[in-house]
Automatic annotation (TrEMBL):
Organism this protein belongs to: Nocardia pseudobrasiliensis
Name of this protein: S-adenosyl methyltransferase
UniProt keyword annotation of Chloroplast present: no
Pfam families the UniProt entry points to: Methyltransf_19
Example of a GO biological process term: methylation
Amino acid sequence: MTDSTTTRVDQSRPSIARVYDYLLGGKDNYAVDREIGDFFIKDLPGSVAIAFANRQALIRAVGHIAVDGVRQFIDFGSGLPTADNVHQVAQRRDPGARVVYVDNDPIVLAHGRALLATDDNTTVITADLREPEEIFAHPEVRRLIDFDQPVGLVFSAILHHLNDDERPADLVRWWVDRVPAGSEVYISHFQSGHNEETRLAEQKLQGSFGRGRWRNDDEILALFGDLEVLAPGLELCTLWRPAPGPGEDVTKIGVDIRELTVWEQLISCALARKS
């Protein structure tokens, strides 16, 4: 991390990307981030399973999108680099796959640049998810993404950080309108469990970040608009297309939903295609 980046980071305010980093065992976080992470670790024991279930589903989703022939991806709210990032999964299928990571945390930019210094087909930009025109016009996006060819749009565990008045479905539709047929959209999202665990977790996120909305199945599916949602539809991340990928934990493959923890039942995902 460069000094110029460090001076732009407000260490008094928590970052979604850095809290996720902490929950996944990373070291790129500050005390304010760890305070939120420790609430989930200590006060809601077992809740870290949400982050791990989401990550494993993302790895599988990118693999499936790549198998379907998509060779370029935009990962919105990408967070800090960890094991099996989107570009690594996609490039196992096609070494020429191109990926743009988008996040509003400058630390993500610094670490992403270091990770991708020798990869001309992958980049990271600092931008706000809620300003799609800025992202679309960014020189790095224009360099890597050909919007005349199918694009994989990845919204992994990010849209639940937008309130209803920020119109997340309209945001997804904005991007869908700019990609051609054959493009695919992946969304994972906190799913309301109508229980005490959901209430406490949602309350903590809203209190810490001033935003956040856990949605039910119908509300999550509505984010896809009129896209064709591919089989098996909206499913718990742990159970979604459970064929294991390289190095993936297979202990939950084929389990009954009743065997999952309450936390594993609080995040769902789906993949859709533009016809």
